From TrEMBL:
It comes from Actinokineospora guangxiensis. InterPro entries: Uncharacterised_pept_Zn_put. This is Neutral zinc metallopeptidase. It holds the Pfam family Zn_peptidase. It is a single-pass membrane protein. The lineage of its organism: Bacteria, Bacillati, Actinomycetota, Actinomycetes, Pseudonocardiales. Keywords: Membrane, Transmembrane, Transmembrane helix. It is found in: Membrane.
Length: 486
């Protein structure tokens, strides 16, 4: 975040406080009310197991070049369950059309002896893919699958293969899935993420033979996988091969989970052109680098000014911000950032915030293994405690899951109004940079994130709900927050 200017209204508790919110074109979220206790109508459960079912016999599918190791067993069992899902859903959702398994499944080791798949050598090919030329699905058992399994758990492997099978489904449905030879890649990729979300609903409902997943931490792992396989910031959605930012990919996955395959098939060029947030890197982004030093006096001063400007319409005293630790007097607060209601102050441990604001090195993942995320993640954490002060000023409840969701929503509304339509490197206002939305998603999915937490730091357990709440604010502004979390 190299800067941003904001003019957002706040909607809290029982009423809209002021009315300068702005609706952004496109669907703000998957259909259905956001409820911290449910995920698309399923109860949130962190205690149920997630991963391969114990005591279930492995599936037997014909796979070329398989080594019968753990990763191949995981992949084959996943594909068997995905086959079962589409055998049920394709005829049910698409006029009785029968699902046909892919003609070819193949496993390879990107660091081992190469083979030819889809006209390409697998040497160094750290990937999983669907190839329409021979109707095949292939995966790298040597590096990609073990890396996913280690960082996010076995359901991340299932998510990647469910996405690739989503492409196979498109190939079979054709026009029923709004797909033809001229369809841009980004539409196909959003649909495939959506179809994967539909399959994960099937798993969460306990219907899959080989896998099970709880709707709390288990589903959060799947969402984190969507972040991992995002496009790099600045890749235009018009580029061949574009898949979408994490912000876009998580939406598509959630839409499939909530509404099912027919919603996925309805994704077309007009929708994507309205909704997608994947923006091309501009000259401004190149010159400004997109990351700010949050410890610099001028940057932090602009940040505080932006918050004050954003919420001045609420008619309440703006919270102050101190940077000498996250304690509230004798109280411990919610380190690394606390809202102190007695003094109407946001207390910040800048040392810890600086760690969050430090982007990971090339090849490392944000928020994984102690890595930082980026400046916007840190700013959003502080902003979440600031909006608690605004909510207190208008008499809103600051404890509980609704407060946590409302807080995330208001941070999302604030984020949208940081978008400068005509960025200027010399601007005195802070401006949202390319990649900042993905920093928000990464921080929202952290187990210790405060963006969707109440005054006591109690986080909404469902990452699904956290992202949805943020998205409502981003797309529908204060009015959306009022409707959803009054």
């Amino acid at each position: 975040m190299s800067g941003y200017k904001v003019a957002v209204a706040v909607a809290l508790a029982a009423a809209v406080v002021v009315g300068c919110g702005q609706k952004v074109p496109g669907e703000p979220r998957a259909a259905g009310a956001v409820n911290a206790g449910t995920v698309a109508g399923l109860p949130v459960d962190n205690n149920a197991p997630t991963g391969p079912r114990a005591g279930v016999e492995d599936a037997t599918l014909a796979v070329e070049n398989a080594d019968k190791g753990e990763m191949d067993r995981l992949a084959i069992n996943a594909l068997a369950d995905i086959y079962d899902y589409w055998t049920e859903r394709m005829p049910a959702d698409f006029g009785g059309q029968k699902f046909e398994p892919v003609k070819r499944l193949a496993s390879y080791d990107s660091g081992g002896k190469p083979v030819q798949l889809c006209g390409t050598s697998t040497a160094g090919l750290v990937n999983a893919f669907y190839c329409g030329a021979d109707d095949s699905v292939a995966w790298d058992r040597g590096k990609l699958l073990p890396m996913l399994n280690k960082q996010f758990g076995p359901m991340s492997v299932v998510a990647v293969l469910a996405h690739e099978m989503g492409h196979a489904v498109q190939f079979r449905l054709g026009e029923k899935s709004n797909i033809n030879q001229a369809t841009p890649t980004i539409v196909k990729e959003q649909q495939a993420d959506c179809y994967a979300g539909g399959f994960f609903r099937y798993v969460a409902e306990g219907k899959a033979k080989h896998f099970e997943m709880n709707t709390g931490s288990g589903l959060n792992q799947a969402l984190a996988t969507m972040f991992f396989i995002r496009d790099p910031a600045g890749l235009s959605a018009k580029e061949k091969g574009a898949h979408g930012l994490a912000f876009d990919r998580v939406f598509a996955f959630q839409a499939g989970f909530t509404e099912g395959p027919r919603r996925c098939a309805a994704m077309d060029v007009p929708e994507i052109e309205q909704r997608i947030e994947e923006k091309e890197r501009t000259e401004y982004d190149e010159r400004s680098s997109g990351e700010a030093d949050i410890t610099a006096e001028d940057i932090f001063g602009k940040f505080k000014d932006s918050l004050d400007e954003a919420f001045k319409g609420a008619g309440v005293q703006a919270p102050g911000i101190t940077r000498n630790g996250a304690k509230c007097g004798d109280a411990e607060g919610t380190p690394p950032v606390s809202y102190c209601p007695d003094s109407n102050t946001v207390a910040v441990d800048m040392g810890e915030m600086e760690k969050v604001a430090t982007p990971p090195k090339r090849g490392e993942e944000p928020g994984v293994d102690g890595n930082g995320i980026g400046d916007f993640a840190a700013f959003a954490e502080i902003a979440s405690r600031y909006v608690l002060g605004v909510q207190k000023g208008v008499g809103a409840e600051l404890e509980g899951e609704t407060a946590g969701l409302r807080t995330a929503c208001l941070v999302g509304a604030w984020t949208q109004f940081t978008v400068d339509k005509d960025p200027d490197v010399g601007s005195q206002k802070l401006q949202l940079a390319v990649g900042d939305l993905d920093e928000a998603v990464a921080e929202l999915l952290q187990d210790n994130s405060l963006i969707a937490a109440d005054i006591n730091g109690k986080q909404v357990p469902s990452g699904f709900a956290r992202v949805e709440a943020f998205r409502i604010g981003y797309h529908d502004g204060d009015a959306g927050c009022a409707r959803a979390f009054s």
